[in-house]
């Protein structure tokens, strides 16, 4: 898409990084938002090599002013926003009875409220371009467990938030969907498995193999696979899809 601009949050690592590089094939510019400035510069180089103009913005999206910074910088530079992919944020995987109020609030501020604020601030520009928004949820929202209560609750809220934006978007020309990935082999997933392994008397290598068997899914997803789906979701070919929650989890969720 010529003269088109995508914003990707959480762009310094994992799914966000892969998505930013993937979108460089379809958008003329990709705005990269995340906290790690050094990692963003490395992603910016990869985006440029893939064919798009990168604009790295080191910012903490849990802060109220961050949405203003990201959108203002984008509009001052390009004058438009065609796609917003809210990927930043991860809730701590702490048991329901052990997680503190501070941990709940910190996670929600980034993953839920950071995405909400940025979408609201970008909305007028998205209306002008008849653009697209995607929110990142997760399969824990469909199968809540005490050990992942914050992950499940926040992801469920994100799915509902996306539905609400989608309803408004139908009236105002903005496409909004959410994506529900399962276990994706990112650095964060590996860190989880490093803790899960000793709790189950396993080496890391055996834990990596055992976890899908116990959780009931076929294999770990890869960040590049999720990025491909996200690329489709903000492409012209997907324009009639709105208000949808698209699951890609290797068969982990068994319900309809």
List the topology elements.
Blueprint: E1 5-9, H1 14-23, E2 29-34, H2 37-50, E3 53-58, H3 66-78, E4 83-86, H4 101-129, E5 132-136, H5 149-172, E6 175-181, H6 187-199, H7 204-215, H8 223-233, E7 245-248
Parallel strand pairs: 1-2, 1-4, 2-3, 4-5, 5-6, 6-7
Helix pairs in contact: 1-2, 1-8, 3-4, 4-5, 6-7
The sequence of SSEs as H and E is EHEHEHEHEHEHHHE
- What is the H level of CATH, i.e. the homologous superfamily of the largest domain? NAD(P)-binding Rossmann-like Domain
Helix amount: 40-55%
Rounded radius of gyration (Å): 18 Å
Could you name the ranges where pLDDT drops below 50 across 5 or more consecutive residues?
A: none
Count of beta strands: 7
- For the biggest β-sheet, the strand order reads 3-2-1-4-5-6-7
Q: Strand content of the residues, in percent?
A: 5-15%
- Report the principal-axis shape: globular
* Largest sheet properties: 7 strands, parallel
The number of domains: 2
What does this structure look like?
Helix 5 (149-172) links the parallel strand 5 and strand 6 (175-181). This protein has helices at residues 14-23, 37-50, 66-78, 101-129, 149-172, 187-199, 204-215, 223-233, and strands at residues 5-9, 29-34, 53-58, 83-86, 132-136, 175-181, 245-248. By secondary structure, it is of the alpha/beta class. Helix 1 (14-23) packs across helix 8. The protein is built from 8 helices and 7 strands; from the N terminus they run E-H-E-H-E-H-E-H-E-H-E-H-H-H-E. Strands 3-2-1-4-5-6-7 form a 7-stranded parallel sheet, with helices on both faces. Helix content is 49%, strand content 14%. The protein has 2 domains: 5-184 and 221-244, Rossmann fold (3-Layer(aba) Sandwich); 185-220, no CATH class. The mean pLDDT is 94.
